[in-house]
Design a protein that fits this description.
28% helix; binds pyridoxal-5'-phosphate; eight-stranded parallel β-barrel; 443 residues; 18 strands; nine-stranded mixed sheet; 2 domains; 22% strand; single chain
Length: 443
């Protein structure tokens, strides 16, 4: 049974939450105990589901394919560690993410370094560690070739923008004609010339976008770059392209009425349109992020207050635009289902009524949902926000300087801390004058 599209049912979240309550992770505020720290919110990540998805990737692609999960989707080191232990690699968008990957125990050859703005220090570090590297533009290629000198190159790929156009969300579409990522495919002749001039480039890389991309567009992007592979090999020799990196971008269904794209549908579409990809003479890499993590994560917050404002009944909770930046600023594009549980973590029942869920930040855009119909909410209840496993905590906003919440992981009956709630000291340290820059070899 595929778990690719699996989502968290309210009853299952309730079971896990009650286990967390029994373990003392989210003590209530009433009756008030001045010696017990109140912790009003937590994020839960289903590591079992994440592991199952890595296993499904392994089973769906040819043996030896590297599944490098995009760190930016969820940079919690213990989440990365679970991925690495499940056999995945990691895709890093910055040198900082490379360090997170190393901290999580990822072998260097399973790290794919993809930043579009690599400095000389970034490149030196990547070469020293022996990471895989995807080059964004010709100047970067030239820089790397000079820095390499005569030493043996790691696996170096060139990112090509297939220019297939955008999806339904402009901000996450990276393959428009003038996208900032990669070399546009309309510069075909220059790309082929670069492969002639730089024998160290042995891979092609394409990533079409994140959320809002139809399956056909994702596959078309890969197909265009694969046809370029054939053209390059006609010119510079068969076998020149050792690795083909397909990127990520499979979207996630955030609304119950949305169907989502099964992994098998994506792989079948690739096989039908681009049989050459699976002919056995090419090593493959994938870079999924959202599809692995988004529906594996959910968050709860106690309701602190319920109040009437104009015609609306407001429930004030402890997670808002700090965790869900995109939701707050572009609510039409970024939806999250919301449920309510009682103070003991049981799904609430009884008469329903409209309620507006607002976050804790001091700005009026901090609204998670307006006039949604839920069983009557009271202070001390839990609001459950679904599908927060990707591009939420990783985009945490420091507005109002609230502490990053506790992150718990679970797999079956196992429940563990992936990241403790930040302390007040952590926040003060964040905003304090920091140490002088470390020496070059530390970066
Ligand atoms: C963000 C990103 C990914 C992951 O995209 P998802 O939509 O989360 O699958 C993969 N590759 C690159 C280069 C990226 O920038």
């Amino acid at each position: 049974m595929s778990r690719w599209l699996e989502r968290t049912r309210l009853e299952d979240a309730s079971t896990v939450l009650r286990r967390a309550l029994a373990a003392g992770f989210l003590p209530p505020q009433e009756p008030y105990d001045p010696y017990a720290a109140y912790n009003p919110s937590a994020i839960f990540h289903d590591l079992g589901r994440v592991r199952a998805r890595v296993a499904e990737l392994d089973a769906s692609f040819p043996a030896g394919t590297l599944h490098a999960v995009a760190i930016k989707a969820n940079p919690v080191v213990e989440v990365l560690r679970a991925l690495v232990q499940a056999g995945a690699g990691l895709e890093a968008a910055s040198l900082e993410e490379v360090w997170l990957a190393l901290e999580a125990g990822c072998p260097a050859w399973r790290i794919v370094f993809d930043s579009p703005a690599k400095t000389r220090d970034d490149v030196a570090s990547a070469l020293a560690h022996g990471l895989r590297l995807n080059v964004d533009n010709f100047d970067e290629l030239d820089r790397i070739a000079r820095m390499l000198g005569k030493s043996r190159p790691p696996l170096i790929g060139l990112r090509v923008n297939p220019q297939v156009g955008g999806g339904s969300i402009a901000l996450t579409s990276v393959a428009t004609r003038s996208s900032k990522f990669g070399v546009p495919i309309e510069r075909r002749d220059e790309i082929i010339a670069a492969f002639e001039a730089y024998p160290l480039v042995r891979a092609l890389h394409v990533h079409v976008g994140s959320q809002g991309m139809p399956l056909e567009t994702l596959v078309e992007g890969v197909a265009r770059v694969h046809s370029l592979r054939e053209e390059i090999e006609r010119r510079v020799g068969k076998g020149r392209i050792h690795t083909f990196d397909l990127g990520g971008g499979l979207p996630v269904a955030y609304r119950p009425e949305d169907k989502g794209i099964p992994l098998s549908a994506y792989v079948d579409a690739l096989k039908a349109k681009i049989p050459g990809l699976f002919a056995g003479d090419l090593a493959l890499v994938t870079e999924f992020g959202r599809a692995i993590h988004a529906t594996a994560g959910w968050a709860v917050s106690r309701v602190e207050y319920v109040k009437q404002a104009g015609d609306e009944r407001l429930a004030v909770i402890h997670l808002g635009a700090d965790l869900l930046v995109r939701r707050a600023y572009r609510p039409d594009e970024w939806h999250h289902e919301i449920d309510v549980l009682d103070a003991e973590g049981r799904p609430k029942t009884g008469p329903t009524e409209p309620v507006t869920i607002v976050g804790p930040l001091c700005f009026s855009g901090d609204v998670l949902a307006r006039n949604i119909v839920l069983p009557r909410i009271e202070p001390g209840d839990f609001v459950l926000i679904h599908d927060v496993g990707a591009y939420t905590l990783g985009m945490w906003s420091r507005h109002c300087s609230r502490r990053i919440p506790l992150v718990l992981g679970y797999d079956g009956d196992d429940l563990s801390v992936l990241r403790y709630r930040e302390t007040l000291h952590d926040v003060v340290a964040f905003w304090s004058r920091s140490r002088p820059q470390p020496s070059r070899n530390e970066s």
